[in-house]
């Protein structure tokens, strides 16, 4: 008899223990022991310089760079300063403008023996490797339009164009104009005018 009571008491205690462990109320998530750090929200771009925007239709003047059969002539912004970054690369900037406003660069790439399509592919790959917040806005057969964040944190809007001046199937010249969003009408107009007016040595094709 005592054995039976003991067994019954044990069952009752066990049942009471299980009921006590069920609990009540609405289930809630349990915090992780080592939760991941929250992802930092993207920072807004640094404010643009307040210089007036580049306008379409600015005055242009004939410019000549390169030597011998690699000499090229084209219209360039009148009064802008020129700086040779290398023997085959030049930059134009309006004197007195702030950094991260607008600037034009021209590079001769005759010796690289690449097609315009390959040149565009290489440029896109480099942009994505080297710059932040790159967005390809438009890509044409010989053009590229994109936005990115500069090393100083400014939002930039750029246009590029490649020219095959001797119809060889290879890219001869690379043109790029960088600017702010407010400069887009002017930078788009500038690169178009430079490219359309570019000629090789003696008024003919390069090479």
From TrEMBL:
Extent of Gly residues compositional bias = 1-11
Record's superkingdom? Answer: Bacteria
> Region Disordered: what ranges?
1-52
Task: Please list the residue ranges that the record marks as compositionally biased, kind Pro residues.
Answer: 41-52
The protein's name in its UniProt record:
Uncharacterized protein
Q: Which species is listed as the source?
A: Nocardioides pini
Q: Name the lineage.
A: Bacteria, Bacillati, Actinomycetota, Actinomycetes, Propionibacteriales
């Amino acid at each position: 008899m005592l054995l039976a009571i003991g067994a019954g008491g044990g069952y009752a205690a066990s049942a009471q223990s299980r009921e006590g462990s069920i609990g009540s109320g609405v289930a809630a998530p349990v915090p992780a022991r080592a939760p991941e750090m929250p992802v930092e929200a993207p920072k807004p771009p640094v404010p643009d310089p307040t210089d007036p925007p580049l306008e379409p239709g600015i005055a242009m003047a004939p410019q000549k760079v390169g030597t011998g059969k690699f000499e090229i002539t084209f219209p360039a912004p009148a009064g802008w300063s020129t700086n040779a970054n290398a023997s085959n690369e030049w930059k134009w900037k309006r004197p007195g403008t702030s950094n991260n406003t607008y600037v034009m660069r021209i590079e001769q790439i005759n010796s690289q023996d690449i097609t315009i399509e390959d040149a565009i592919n290489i440029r896109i790959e480099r942009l994505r490797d080297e710059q932040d917040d790159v967005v390809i806005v438009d890509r044409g057969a010989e053009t590229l339009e994109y936005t990115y964040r500069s090393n100083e944190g400014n939002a930039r809007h750029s246009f590029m164009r490649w020219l095959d001046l001797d119809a060889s199937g290879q890219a001869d010249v690379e043109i790029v104009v960088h600017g702010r969003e407010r400069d887009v009408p002017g930078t788009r107009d500038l690169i178009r005018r430079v490219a359309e007016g570019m000629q090789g040595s003696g008024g003919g094709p390069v090479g």
